[in-house]
Amino acid sequence: MGTDRQNGSLFIDITGKVAKVEFGHPAGNSFTAEMLDRFAAELHKLSMNETISVIVLQSEGERAFCGGASFEELMSISNLDEGKVFFSGFANVINAMRTCPKIIVGRVQGKTVGGGVGLAASCDYVFASEAASIRLSELSIGIAALVIEPAVTRKIGEAAISELSLSPTEWKSAYWAQEKGLFSKVFDNLKELDEALVFFSEQLSNYNPQALADWKKVLWEGTSHWDNLLKERAGITGRLVLSEFTKNAISKFKK
């Protein structure tokens, strides 16, 4: 499935036991509320598809993997309900990835900001390129990485997320992200990355699907409270985005 390029796109391709989910947006592969809703819905559909065992999550192009939340939509939020609904979109996607019984393998080919870091952290295994530097820029625009924090902390730990989030204008390298546990493998170029990704995902898809599903439950033990936690965090972030500080910061950042 997909939509017109200007509003963002989401495509699903199933080959054998592997499903590829590819998202895209002209603004650095950032996410609008509509894209987040469709993304979560597609993940729920794939969760019930008994013909697949592995999902590969990737974005369009060879540059940015994900620019996080759409600045246009952040600027257009005018009340608390709208803010909570928008940030609940990221909460819903992370929870859909968490509860999906399929192993999710991420392909991170370029820079990743904010919510994109949360997506990478919600994957079960991540292939990245050298160009895949990361940044949690939320504090620099007046909000905080509240919704994605549990997913990121689960992968890299409290010390690393503290370092990452409190230096919101600093890019951390792909190798830093690998050292901290966010990325599983880092490659010199996309050709090598894609060759390894195809081999890995196809090999993984041939394992016992029930064993994979049972093992994924073990990997995500202790996260069932995220259904409520992430929604609560979305409400807090929705309040923060309404502040004059944030409105001015986003406007300046966008320019």
From TrEMBL:
Signal peptide: none annotated. CDD domains: crotonase-like. PANTHER family: ENOYL-COA HYDRATASE, POLYKETIDE BIOSYNTHESIS ENOYL-COA HYDRATASE PKSH-RELATED. Belongs to the enoyl-CoA hydratase/isomerase family. This is Enoyl-CoA hydratase. The lineage of its organism: unclassified sequences, metagenomes, ecological metagenomes.
